[in-house]
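Q: Entry one of two.
A:
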Amino acid sequence: MIYIVEAFVEDYLHVFANVNLIKIFRNVYSDESFVFISPEKHNHNVKKYFESEFSKISFETIINLNSSPRSIYDRVNLIFYRLLRDYRVLNSVFKRCRPGDKIVITHIHFFSLILLKLFKKKYRSITTFSVIHGDVEFVFFSNTKEQKVVGFFHELMFKVKAENFYYLFLTPISKDLLLGAGKTTIDETLAIELPTFPLEDKFNSNPIAISYKVKIGHIGSAGLRKNVDLFYKLAIDLEKSICKGDLELSIVGVLENTIAPFLNPLIINYVDNELNKALSRELYDQKIATLDYVIFFYGKNDFILRSSAAFFDAIYYEKPIIALRNTFFDDVFKRAGKIGYLCESIKEIETLITLILKEEKFKLEYLNLVENIKEYKSSLSITDISFSLKKEIELRQSL
């Protein structure tokens, strides 16, 4: 039996990630039955993708404790109840395990990471995988007290060693950084590239050419943490092309509070300038599909250690990328080939867009970029990811 536990997210967040993780582990352990355990709404959303397979996958729910505390007291109270809930969930799952059973923790609150390790030290023989999400970046890059606390608990987890315990990182570069820094050891460290789109439901763009009016959009949530203020600066520099109708810039996603001072009509949004207003998934998908390029402004070390859902949305819809050069994109372009353009500065992005609007060679190259994305996307199959992970697990277990 394989127990897969999602003890953090609720509703629609991470649904495709968890659906893909279930399918990947199902391929790795093809003879086993599976139990997926998560908060109720999330459980229901994941369950929809396995309706024809209930004989091999069962679904169980746990209480959801995600909320927005209004005071320090509420926050401390929430942490206490999360720890208590997570203790009960982990205790129940580990106690149910029989020889040969395995546990996959897809997400758990950072306070409970050490709790997981302590259970693992008690139940030594039960093979356990812990999926490590982007908060691990706070081990290396933390600016606030809260980020430092999150980084501390990850660091503490890494220091507590346990038999038959494996970290599963969601980007190859994450594994390399953690190993290089001596935070984890090779015998406990695994990595996959986990897309956050439905891997078995391929979108095919079949573009004939770039649009007459070039459409460039930032996708996902838009705020200062993603440097989206630079997009508005870029729009001002490209105002003539926008006003002439040669160029359309848009934000497809939520406008965060921090972007409010920069809003202007040169960049279209689909939430009527309303902050923190969510787009429906249908509208989000529809608007991405109409873009020619997707643009990102990540900082030098942003998204090195976390899987970017917006990036994978761009890949799913086969949209060439324009981005500031950073470690994340350097690594992706090294593995995927030329799937867009990496620029050293905002000025260079402005020059690039101006050339795209004027020069025929960019229109010809566009189709080559899309073909490269298609090839990269085809490498992100359940079969290939599962095969790679299975080989990694077998190698670690032989050490």
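Q: Entry two of two.
A:
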Amino acid sequence: MSFQVRIRPNVTIMSDKSVYLTNETISVSGKVSPYFPDYPVTICLKHFDTIKAVAQVTPLTNGSFRCTDIYRVKPEDKGRWTVVANYGNLVESSADLFVGLYINVEVTPRTLRPGELFNLTGRVPFVVSGPVKVKIIGPSGGLWAEFDAGVSADGYYSVQQLVYPYDEPGVYNVTVSYWGASNRTSFKIGMLGLNTFRVSNVGTFDVIGNPTSTFIRGQQVQVSVSLKNNDIIPHRYIYVVQIADKSAHVIFIGWIESAIEVGQTVRHSIGTVITTRGDYTASIMVWDDWATPTPLAESITLSFKVV
């Protein structure tokens, strides 16, 4: 009695990438098992029922095969495509790939401070399935946030995250990915605290800029300061001067609202005329805004007298 063993052939196929952009060429490779010399592999590249390219290759004796540059992607090509391999009409295998799939990403604003909202938006040209993966790495290399962003029917996605005071100042790197397509961007988180600005050259001056702590009644008192932005992002700020008499009665409040670039140093003076003799104090403060004022530097108090 004799037996005949029949081995069912097998074929595998895959593209060299999962995502292709315009003008990129698609190449495929695979393997057959067992190898039959008289059976070539036929390859068909399809978008739904539309045939985009065909090829026929003979496997090597080890069963492997490759077809390079089977198709060059055109600007109008979009969507999920399928590459199908048929091994001598014996068995068929297929694999999906994505043509024209890319992912846009935008962060607004690109510089953030504690209390502000990180806002990321983007779009894919067509929807496959599942979310856009968003991963954000902080300045020291640790994970700051990770999101699965839902994709709308027209391809849009977005995520938001509040920036907290304890978030590390520096550059944050963002990676977004969707079915093999990926993109990168970055943004900065700055400081919001007493070390944001360096205050120097503080003093009271007369109208022509001479430093003095004694003024004649009716003479203008100038309170001047130099401010340097120590942060990695630009800032808007308010320079505030409040003058009170020895009884703590506030007799003057003045301020300057301005903006400063990274590493920039500016000098400000605020002046007023005091007509009553006596001892006075000038309090100097630097805040971020009037709505929810947060100090950007230590407050400084100066004493002077009017005679």
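A: Comment on entry two: The chain has a mean pLDDT of 92. The radius of gyration is 35 Å.
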